[in-house]
Amino acid sequence: MDIKGVLFDKDGTLLEFHQMWISVSQSVVGVLLARYSTPAMASDESLLAAIGVYGDRVDNRGLLASNPVEDIALTWFEMLMPGCSKTDFIDDVKALFNQTVKENPGLIKSLPGIEAVLITLKQCGLKLGIATADSKAATLYSLEQAGLLDYFDFIGYSDGDIEPKPAPDLMEAFCGTCGLIARQVVMFGDTVSDMKFGQNAGAISIGVLTGTATHAELAPHARMVISSVADFTPDLLDRMRRSPTTTQ
């Protein structure tokens, strides 16, 4: 197996997910409920549950874990029935998410050992990329705050101008930018959507347990499941290159 590129999901794979996005979502919901007083009488609990947030738990298959902000906004639009256009509401929700992320830089943290692995993979001559459901502004800001931005040859995000995961469009963009074909790429992610994205594109999907999904949820859709990207050592890379059926 000739591996020449590695594509990563961002939150839950490279960056800490739960503390940041639960807090950000709670703050955004609070602003929306104050800003749009409607007969729907939606509560913060109902709005959060609609995107897969239940207290301190995030559903791996929920909107927050796997979908772009536009999908979250559309769901909330139907619940709140605000007195504005759908387009204006989506723009407002996106702006609120971006603003809240920037107002809380302390929540943005790379997962343990990630930077060292990125350095090693670059030294091995691999092309590195990001494929995230997050917006461009939040993606660039969070990677910069975490000190990881400069390691990537490609950064793909979901701003409404490209089909999001699990459609293969972001993989095709990565391969086109870096001169690769999908079967030469390893895709790391923490959700079933990430694993299906890799499969749909013809890449090698590897699940990690640092985000929202369990081993049992990821395993049916992944070549292997490991604890963290930090465990993707040169030895494991060499074993994968030698054996197309490596599992763990």
UniProtKB/TrEMBL annotation:
Record-linked SUPFAM superfamilies: HAD-like (SSF56784)
Keywords: Metal-binding
UniProt keyword annotation of ATP-binding present: no
Catalytic activity: 2-phosphoglycolate + H2O = glycolate + phosphate
Entry EC number(s): 3.1.3.18
Domain of life per record: Bacteria
Associated pathway: Organic acid metabolism; glycolate biosynthesis; glycolate from 2-phosphoglycolate: step 1/1
Matching InterPro entries: HAD-like_hydrolase_sf, HAD-like_sf, HAD-SF_hydro_IA, HAD_sf, PGP-like_dom2
Family to which this protein belongs: Belongs to the HAD-like hydrolase superfamily. CbbY/CbbZ/Gph/YieH family.
Stored NCBIfam families: HAD-SF-IA-v1 (TIGR01549)
PANTHER family: PHOSPHOGLYCOLATE PHOSPHATASE (PTHR43434:SF1)
Protein name: phosphoglycolate phosphatase
